[in-house]
Each structure stands twice: as structure tokens, then as C-alpha cells.
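Okay, can you check this protein?
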Amino acid sequence: MGIDLQNIAGTNNSSPPPPKKKAIRIVANADFREHSLPLFKQLGILPFSKLHEYCLGKFMYREHNNLAPVKIMGDILYNHNVHDYKTRGVGNIHARYYRTQIVANSFINKGRYHWQMIPDDIREVNTLQSFSGQLQRYLGMQIALAT
């Protein structure tokens, strides 16, 4: 159940392009066959995949700093709580094993994964507003590097 993000993201080659890409091409007065990623970069808009990462990052920041109205993830378990010895990722969130792929691909588990990918200097920012701005710039730079 839920939304099929595979088809929304445009990974299925037989489906028409997502409405956001079509709208970007119209706003930029671009040909309908032109690549959309440079247009997103030109207009300063995050594509759907990066927007998803941005929302996951904000969610994890709220969870990590106890700013969420309801604690969805429960207590976050870190590697130093699990292992008695020093590991490379001692400060990282502990990656748990899940029996089914549905749970492994859940929003919360994807949030844990994406949280690890955000640089430490952005994760350790004091306010949600500055975190949001820095995360958006970081994701925008990833788009610039991809084009």
C-alpha cells in the first residue's frame, strides 16, 4: 500500500515524464526532449529524489535533536551503545538487520541511511533553520556535480 515512488521518480521507462519535469521544461522554455537536471540547476529547484533526501534529512535532524512533536523512532541506537570496542563508525546510528525488505526500505530506515551520508559539519548545526539551508545547499552542490 502507499505511493509507488518508483513510478513517480520516472524510473519506469514506459511511463510518461513526471509532471514536475514537464513543468520545469515549460518554465525554462526548453525542448520537451531536453535533459531536466540542468534545468533544475538553472532554476535552483531540487529534483524529486533530492527533495526526498531533504525531507528525510529534516526528519532525522528533528529526531536526532529531540525536536519532533512525537518520537517516531523511539530511542536512536548508536554503534557505541552496541559495541564495546572501537569501530570506524562509533558515532553513527546503528544499522539494524531486518528480515523483510519492506521494513528495510521504510521511511525511517532510509532516513537512517541518508543521515549517515550528510557531512558532520551540517549534522552538528545548532538550529533547524540553519540545518535546512545548509542541507539544501549541499544537495544543490550534488546536482551541480552531476551535470
In short: Residues 4 and 10 are 11 Å apart (CA to CA). The chain has a mean pLDDT of 77. The radius of gyration is 18 Å. The chain has nine helices and no strands.
